[in-house]
Design a protein that fits this description.
This protein is of the alpha/beta class. The chain has 8 helices and 7 strands, in the order E-H-E-H-E-H-E-H-E-H-E-H-H-H-E. The protein has a single domain (12-194, 223-248), classed as 3-Layer(aba) Sandwich (Rossmann fold), CATH 3.40.50. A 7-stranded parallel sheet has the order 3-2-1-4-5-6-7, sandwiched between helices.
C-alpha cells in the first residue's frame, strides 16, 4: 500500500543551516510530519537549542557541528547521521551567506566564501548522501535557491551567481538520479524575515517599503511559511515532481 502522501514517519532528514531562519522553519515542518532530524551547522549553541525544540515535537533530533564546505567534514557528517539515526532519506541544502557589495568592490576571497557556502556545500552534501539514498531505494533533496535565482541585484553578485547555480545544479541532479528514485527540487524564497534580511534592511535604504509594495501578500514571509513546502517536497506527495524551482515569495516574483 502506498504510504500516506504527507507522512514522514520513519524517515531521517538532514537540514544544513537548520538551526535558524528558513532552515529551522523547514526542520520544524519535517519534524511535525514525523521525520527525525539532523541539524547541521557551525554554531553549536544554536544547533543545541534547535535540537531541543525539535525533540519536544516528539521526534529524534541530533546536532552535527560541521563545515559543509569541507569535503572530509561532510563525509564524516553523513556517516554520523546514518550511524546515529539509521538512514538518510531527505537532505535540505539550506546553508547560505551573503556579502552585499557591487561586483567592482567584491574581492576574490569574499566571492569564494559565498560560492563555497551556498553552492559548493550543496554539491558536497548531495554527493555524500547519494549512496545511502540509492541503497534505500530513493530519497528527496531540497536545495534552497532565492529570488536572486531569477533576478539580478547590484549588491549581490556572488550570492546571485550561487543561487542561479543552485537551480541548474538541481536540474542536473534531478536528471542524473531519477533512475535511482531520488527527486531533487529547489525552493526560491522571497523576502523572508530572518537575521540575514534584518541586516539587509539596515544596509539597503527603503528596502522594507519596496518589498511590501511589490509583494501581493503585502507582508514579509515568516520562517514557518516553509514548513509546508518542505513536507511536500520531502514526502510521497512529490514523487513525480523533480527538477523544479518553486518560488515561496507571497507573489513577489510574478509582479512586473
Amino acid at each position: 500500500m502506498k504510504p500516506a502522501l504527507f507522512t514522514l514517519s520513519g524517515k531521517v532528514a538532514i537540514v544544513t543551516g537548520g538551526n535558524g531562519g528558513i532552515g529551522l522553519g523547514m526542520a520544524r515542518g519535517l519534524a511535525e510530519a514525523g521525520a527525525d532530524i539532523a541539524v547541521v551547522g557551525r554554531d553549536a549553541a544554536k544547533s543545541t537549542a534547535a535540537v531541543a525544540e525539535l525533540a519536544r515535537i516528539g521526534v529524534r533530533a541530533i546536532s552535527v557541528v560541521a563545515d559543509v564546505t569541507d569535503q572530509a567534514a561532510v563525509a564524516t557528517m553523513a556517516a554520523r547521521v546514518a550511524g546515529e539515526l539509521g538512514r538518510i532519506d531527505i537532505l535540505v541544502n539550506n546553508a547560505g551567506i551573503n556579502i552585499r557589495k557591487p561586483p567592482h568592490a567584491l574581492d576574490i576571497a569574499e566571492w569564494n566564501r559565498v560560492i563555497q557556502t551556498n553552492l559548493t556545500s550543496a554539491f558536497l552534501c548531495s554527493q555524500a548522501v547519494y549512496p545511502a539514498m540509492k541503497a534505500a531505494g530513493g530519497g528527496k533533496i531540497v536545495n534552497i535557491g532565492s529570488m536572486m535565482s531569477i533576478f539580478g541585484a547590484s549588491f549581490a553578485p556572488a550570492y546571485a551567481a550561487s543561487k542561479g547555480g543552485i537551480v541548474q545544479f538541481t536540474r542536473s541532479c534531478a536528471c542524473a538520479w531519477a533512475a535511482d528514485n531520488i527527486q531533487v527540487n529547489a525552493v526560491l524564497p522571497g523576502w523572508i524575515d530572518t537575521d540575514l534580511t534584518k541586516r539587509a534592511r539596515q544596509e539597503i535604504d527603503g528596502l522594507h517599503d519596496r518589498v511590501l509594495q511589490r509583494t501581493p501578500a503585502a507582508r514579509w514571509g515568516e520562517i514557518d511559511d516553509f514548513g509546508g513546502i518542505a513536507v511536500f517536497l520531502a514526502s510521497p506527495a512529490s514523487d513525480f515532481v523533480t527538477g523544479t524551482a518553486i518560488p515561496v515569495d507571497g507573489g513577489y516574483s510574478i509582479m512586473g
